[in-house]
Amino acid sequence: MYKNIEFKSEGATLRGRLYLAENNSEKLPVIIMAHGYSATIEGMVADRYAEVFCNSGFAVLLYDHRNLGISEGEPRQQLNRWTQARGFRDAIDFVTTLPEIDSTKIGLWGDSMSGDEVIFVAAMDHRVKTVVAQVPACGKELPPADPDGSLFQSLKDTFLQGDIEGTSETTVGPKPVVSFDQESISSMLKPLTAYRWFMEYGCRYNTKWINHVTYVKPDVPTQFSSVLCIPHLKAALLMMVAHDDEIEGANTDVARYAFNLAPEPKQLVEIDGGHFGLLFYPSALFDEASMTQANFFIKYLK
């Protein structure tokens, strides 16, 4: 169903898969996907979403973020929203060169941290026509107001040409991604639901997931915020938000607030299962979410 691909981003080679329907002779709309906080493409359920979308008639580019999994990049296991957002941009550039792809029909999909990033990128790059953000980690709290758009312009300047390198003062970790006991071993993601999911899926054979990361929050004029960007979207938006999301950075109230700022067309779906419920496969929640998302892509991208 897929072939291995690679493309350049921020001086590193990013690797992933290009899913294509068999015996297809037409140029296809494409959905670009990358997983959430430290997760990888092999066996951690993003690949199952890619299969559903491919079977719905889309090409799908699914890749590992820089510094993670099968992709290159140093330091290993370093997470940087700015770097990952630029990775999405470079993936867009890459798919526009492929003969199988209709470059006028590009969608983005993200989960958790990458759900936050795809909103950000779509606001910056209007080649994106459709966005699906699954339990997006839009922040712990609301950013400052931006009545004149100056904060958005500052974000755009940094995204396009700003210095996004971290320093020792702006880096947290290395720390485990998850831990079963916060008193003895503190981790980046603290709820036991996070520990359960990462242990069940990340520890499977050949995922290349590693239970430690550093997180970089570069010293930039305006901190990364999809909430500041979302009013500037030109793409159709589907947000799937968990009731009372247990991950601090995926505050449900912030996500709802962001959705209300987004222009039409848009759709909000509030789901059960907490932050990780949509990442258990097979499950009824996966079936519900994947078909809702596929239908949204069919309506606004295909």
Q: Would you mind describing this structure in some detail?
A:
The longest helix has 17 residues, at 284-300. Strands 1-2-4-3-6-7-10-11 form an eight-stranded mixed beta sheet, with helices on both faces. The chain has a three-stranded mixed beta sheet with strand order 5-9-8. It is α/β, with parallel strands linked by helices and 302 residues long. The chain is 30% helix and 24% strand. It is built from eight helices and eleven strands. It has one domain (2-145, 223-300): 3-Layer(aba) Sandwich (Rossmann fold). The two termini are 19 Å apart. The relative contact order is 0.16. It is globular and about 55 Å long.
Q: Main attributes?
A:
single chain; 302 residues; alpha/beta; Rossmann fold; 8-stranded mixed β-sheet; 3-stranded mixed β-sheet; 24% strand
CATH topology: Rossmann fold
Question: Over the alpha carbons, how many angstroms does the gyration radius reach?
Answer: 18 Å
Shape type: globular
Structural class: alpha/beta
Structure in a nutshell:
This protein is α/β, with parallel strands linked by helices. It has helices at 46-55, 81-95, 113-124, 150-161, 192-202, 226-229, 252-261, 284-300, and strands at 2-9, 12-19, 28-34, 59-63, 78-80, 101-111, 128-134, 171-175, 213-216, 236-242, 266-271.
Summarize the SSE layout with pairings.
Blueprint: E1 2-9, E2 12-19, E3 28-34, H1 46-55, E4 59-63, E5 78-80, H2 81-95, E6 101-111, H3 113-124, E7 128-134, H4 150-161, E8 171-175, H5 192-202, E9 213-216, H6 226-229, E10 236-242, H7 252-261, E11 266-271, H8 284-300
Parallel strand pairs: 3-4, 3-6, 5-9, 6-7, 7-10, 10-11
Antiparallel strand pairs: 1-2, 2-4, 8-9
Helix pairs in contact: 2-3
